[in-house]
Specification:
alpha+beta, elongated, five-stranded antiparallel β-sheet
Length: 235
């Protein structure tokens, strides 16, 4: 029996996707390209999204279809589900494949019944992780039972590996840009205070810091306020 996936063609598509991911200019654009790539590259995938957990609160990123949002919300409401488990794996389960939602799913009985009513026939999920961090779960959905094979699971795992690196890189870049922007804003605000009140750099920074602490406002927001208004406004 021949492979369901044309691996030579898939390899070329993955190489093109990897370059495309690195060309994205924001975290959101990177995530949207990841989920769009899942529907393009994995046979039978009708919808895809990324689930992030904040404690027990679920956040859905870059969904390609309303079904993804509804599935994540259902798992959050029931406190169970495959995507939920993978996203909070803590180094445990990293891949799952549910081939047929018309069959009983003893592990997630509450979720599975409602998932069928949402129109989910089968699904797969992959932990997005690098050596240093876990980033959530990439989840793929099909309306057809039996849509995903072992070959599709392998293809999804390869996609998720590239996606995790791109996601981590984009997030690190965004954090660096924010840090540089914040430092610039604080420096500009210090300059305004120094010029207005004839203070040294240390004294100007201390003024910003004290205002931040006394009014429970983040230092970068205090600095932005000074830059925008030429001084402090009433909290």
């Amino acid at each position: 029996m021949e492979d369901r996936v044309d691996w030579a063609r898939f390899g070329k598509q993955m190489a093109s996707m990897a370059r495309d991911l690195l060309a994205q200019t924001s975290v959101d654009a990177t995530l949207e390209r990841i989920t769009a790539s899942a529907t393009e590259l994995v046979e039978g995938c009708d919808a895809a999204g990324i689930l992030i957990l904040h404690g027990r609160k679920v956040e859905t990123l870059a969904p390609t279809h309303r079904l993804v949002v509804d599935s994540d919300a259902l798992q959050a409401r029931e406190g169970e589900g495959p995507c939920f488990d993978v996203a909070r794996s803590g180094g445990g389960e990293r891949v799952f494949r549910i081939s047929d939602f018309t069959r009983e799913q003893p592990r997630w009985p509450a979720y599975a019944g409602e998932a069928r009513r949402l129109g989910i026939g089968s699904m797969m999920g992959f932990l997005l992780f690098t050596e240093d961090e876990e980033l959530g779960a990439l989840n793929l959905y099909s309306s057809r039972p039996g849509a995903f094979t072992e070959d599709d699971e392998t293809a999804g795992l390869l996609l998720a590996s590239h996606a995790a690196v791109a996601f981590s890189s984009a997030r690190t870049h965004a954090q660096l840009e924010r840090a540089i922007s914040t430092r610039h804003t604080i420096g500009e605000a210090m300059g305004i205070i120094m010029g207005r009140h004839r203070l040294s750099e240390d004294e100007a920074f201390d003024v910003l810091r004290r205002y931040s602490q006394e009014n429970n406002v983040k230092l970068r927001d205090v600095a932005a306020q000074v830059c925008a208004h030429g001084g402090f406004t009433k909290p």
